[in-house]
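Long-time lurker. I teach an intro course on protein structure, and each term I like to show students one example going from raw sequence to a predicted 3D structure in token notation. This year I'd like something fresh instead of my usual example. Would anyone be willing to generate the tokens for the chain below so I can use it in lecture? Attribution to the forum is fine with me.
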Amino acid sequence: MGAYMLSNTDKNRTRVDIYGIPYTIVGTESSSHIRLVASMVDETMRDISAKNPSLDISKLAVLTAVNTMNDYLKLKDEVERLKEELNRVKD
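-- Reply from a regular --
Happy to contribute to a lecture. Here you go:
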């Protein structure tokens, strides 16, 4: 999602709601991709909030980011493991 830091050329502006708050996301990804990402963030925030109803939105956002980064690192490790396995099979 690093595309959000690019210049204004070739950018899509997509309005989304995350946890009841409207955002305009600007990026090179398609609007459908941006909406999918936003819906996944919204779903994760709502799941965490349901289990921890006393969290304020800042803590909820941080926990959502922590959970998302944890999932990302697990998937990244799995991809690396699979690449190594594929290289062994090819050799």
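Some talking points for your students: Confidence is low (pLDDT under 50) at residues 1-6. DSSP finds two helices and two strands in the chain.
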